[in-house]
Amino acid sequence: MTMTMRETKKTILAKLGGANGLNSQAYGPNAPAPDTYMAPGNYANAESVERGAEGDRYNWVAFSAYGEGNLVNGQDLAAKLEQVFAADELCQDVHMNVYQNEDGMAHRVEYRFHTFGVEVLESSDRPDFCPSCGWNTERINCNAVPADHPSEDCHFLCANCSVDTGITGPCIRQIALNMEFKLNAFLTRSPNVVSAVSPSVANAAGEIVMGYALAENNLRAMMVNVPGHNPRGHLSDDITRLKKYKANIVESASAKSADGGRAMERCINAIIDAFAKVHAQRNALAHGQLVQVGLSTVTIGGDNTDRDKDRGSRLQIEHNGETVELTGDGIQELLNNARELQAQVGHLGQILDFLASR
Length: 358
Known about the structure:
The protein is α+β, with helices and mostly antiparallel strands. Helix content is about 35%, strand content about 25%. It has helices at about 5-20, 75-85, 200-220, 235-245, 245-255, 260-285, 330-355; strands at about 40-50, 55-65, 70-75, 90-100, 105-115, 155, 165-170, 175-185, 290-300, 305-320, 320-325. Strands 1, 2, 3, 4 and 5 form a five-stranded antiparallel sheet that branches. Strands 8-9-10-11 form a four-stranded antiparallel sheet. Strands 6-7 form a two-stranded antiparallel sheet. The longest helix is centred in the last third of the chain and has 30 residues, at about 260-285. The radius of gyration is 36 Å and the shape is elongated.
């Protein structure tokens, strides 16, 4: 029975695995140097194909790589492998080379042989072998000058003979590398570093810090009669008290007005939600480390002439894993959340004024 190239590869790997117990591994078309590290396992690849009247002849290269912990005696291994291929009808003209260290312990075995079979293509647009020289096209890359063809319609050339393989598809015309590096900024060393922050961003940062402080002071004053009051407590402490005693607060408000009770519950939920969105980043803004981020974009073209470098930088504040970029886009969401927190605390005051009048 004539097997396809892929069926033959599976059979070769199974035969090697049965002989040495190593797993099958993926393998590229270029044979590595003897001192190149390879993960332990069996590798096999048909390097080229020769078309003939008797069928397709596939020229194979296969490797068995042994890990440091399971090296084998080179002479014993050679004798064993000779028996493996001695009566094999599939693999013809087997040549074996055992690589071993000074102690005679083998770390790799290379096999070269050929088989006869048929090639079955998964796609007519991507042949497995070059139609001119028969070289493997499994991992072929575009090696034509990018200016010679559109990037979306590349005709891939054979890596061995440079003839058009018939493989078409997109290729890379340019590669853009975006890089950044961070440096802590200290006013003692760079007194003018903050001047890089636009006035609108600086005003937004001040509004966030001030708005948070006002919300903190106002909520504390409203909760003076709630258990656990601390005249010097933080907003996070009062939010915890608000969660703990929410049911009691809503019940007390509902006793005076059903609408007031419902409004009180919605407002408390809104305060808790707004606090969760603003708390961590506000702390970063108020207590974090100022960081200068350097930016670099390098664009490399295939002809090695298009090497642009666009550089810039930005400031940001970091604290406990939170980052606030000192840019308009980077601070806008935090500003919106801080305004929402302050508005909801103000709404709570209006509800309390309404209930006091009942």
